[in-house]
Write a sequence for this structure.
């Protein structure tokens, strides 16, 4: 494991004159799931962009184990998984072709087998050869989850992963997240669906206007507790 | 999970193969480019006629105007397709230069297909002599590479920009103008009666130098230009 923990120290991000993040500090450790909440414009997606290494902070420091942000950007590519609003899949390719393509990009041995295994894990074997453009939102999200998990990321960033999912798909995603957590992956999740994360997270971060308004660590945070702490922080 | 990350060429071929597969299924880029190019050639063949006969000496210029505009049309759509998936591609443990090389290969092929349709049409409509097909092929290949090298760089870097269609033209044309001029002059020398292969060779060498500079600079600049702010 190269990403033993993630340390965010006084991170600022400014777009023009507007500070999207105004000095945010926290730590993420393996074996738990952190939940990031905040109203629209609080800086959640900006923070995920920085943590994914795709966007540099204006100032402050982000450390991934021994690596700082610029080094991580070069050396830790492939160890960070990002699941965002967009599924990041190719519409004109089938689910299987998409997963095989990404497995090859990540240099995984036997990419076809890896793709089949993941299609099974996200219960998409029956639609494996359908083009992504023909999938429903829930099916798309399952394949996107397989794409992001197939290289076994050490840091997993999820931006509203429960949007558009039915109850079965939510249960499947929760189950996958528990498995990934047990494997030692650091997970940061952004969602407003507190029912979907009931009892799943043990670290709550609340962002408000670019500042960290509250931070709580408590094992198996219930949806109701999350809601209360979120509203208290705002 | 065991990994053996692919080498530079394998990475570029993966990106190229994926783009060709997507295009083979939609055919929207090549069809749009070819349709536009054929229309432009037809219009010019009527516009540039003297006493009912098409003018030979403008054919080289027409060919490269077609390459530039059809190429820009294709570039916009080619990179628009990657907007949603760009972050997944950028997070993969592959060289950014390899992504660029794959994209460059795709654009060269799309423009090449357009040229393969347009050139015979030009020869037919303008009654052109084809005395030096190899040199003409070399001129087209080098000019296409130069145009696509700059186009792929700006196309990728403007992917997340709102007015990318306008900006692409503004940034691209001033830089590729030397290649377009060299291509037009070299082609005109080869399609003239009599043909002037010596003059064409001078333009071909000039394009080779441009290509070397553009491709090297683009391979180096691709990573910083595509990093999001």
């Amino acid at each position: 494991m190269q990403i033993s923990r993630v340390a965010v120290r006084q991170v600022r991000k400014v777009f023009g004159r507007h500070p999207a993040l105004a000095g945010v500090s926290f730590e993420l450790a393996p074996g738990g799931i952190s939940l990031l909440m905040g109203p629209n414009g609080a800086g959640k997606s900006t923070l995920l962009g920085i943590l994914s290494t795709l966007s540099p902070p204006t100032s402050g420091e982000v450390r991934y184990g021994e690596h700082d942000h610029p080094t991580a950007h070069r050396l830790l590519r492939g160890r960070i998984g990002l699941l965002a609003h967009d599924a990041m899949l190719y519409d004109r390719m089938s689910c299987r072709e998409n997963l095989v393509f990404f497995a090859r990009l990540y240099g995984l041995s036997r990419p076809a087998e890896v793709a089949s295994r993941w299609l099974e894990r996200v219960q998409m074997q029956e639609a494996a050869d359908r083009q992504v453009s023909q999938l429903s939102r829930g099916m798309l999200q399952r394949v996107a989850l397989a794409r992001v998990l197939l290289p076994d990321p050490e840091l997993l960033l999820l931006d509203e992963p429960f949007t558009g999912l039915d109850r079965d798909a939510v249960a499947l995603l929760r189950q996958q997240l528990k498995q990934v957590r047990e494997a030692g992956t650091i997970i940061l999740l952004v969602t407003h669906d507190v029912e979907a994360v009931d009892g799943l997270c043990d670290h709550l971060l609340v962002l408000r206007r670019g500042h960290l308004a509250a931070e709580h660590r408590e094992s198996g945070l219930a949806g109701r507790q999350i809601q209360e702490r979120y509203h208290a922080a705002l | 999970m065991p990994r053996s990350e692919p080498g530079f060429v394998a990475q570029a071929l993966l990106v190229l193969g994926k783009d060709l597969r997507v295009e083979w299924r939609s055919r929207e880029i090549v069809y749009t480019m070819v349709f536009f190019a054929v229309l432009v050639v037809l219009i010019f063949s009527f516009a540039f006629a003297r006493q009912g006969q098409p003018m030979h000496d403008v054919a080289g210029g027409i060919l490269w105007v077609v390459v530039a505009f059809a190429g820009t049309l294709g570039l916009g759509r080619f990179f628009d397709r990657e907007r949603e998936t760009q972050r997944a591609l950028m997070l993969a443990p592959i060289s950014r230069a390899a992504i660029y090389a794959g994209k460059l290969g795709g654009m060269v092929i799309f423009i090449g297909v357009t040229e393969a349709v347009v050139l015979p049409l030009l020869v037919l409509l303008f009654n052109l002599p084809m005395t030096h097909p190899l040199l003409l092929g070399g001129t087209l290949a080098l000019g296409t590479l130069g145009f696509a090298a700059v186009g792929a760089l700006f196309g990728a870097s403007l992917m997340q920009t709102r007015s990318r269609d306008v900006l692409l033209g503004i940034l691209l044309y001033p830089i590729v103008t030397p290649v377009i001029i060299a291509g037009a002059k070299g082609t005109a020398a080869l399609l003239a009666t009599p043909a002037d292969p010596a003059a064409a060779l001078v333009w071909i060498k000039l394009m080779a130098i441009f290509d070397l500079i553009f491709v090297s600079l683009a391979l180096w600049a691709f990573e910083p230009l595509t990093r999001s702010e």
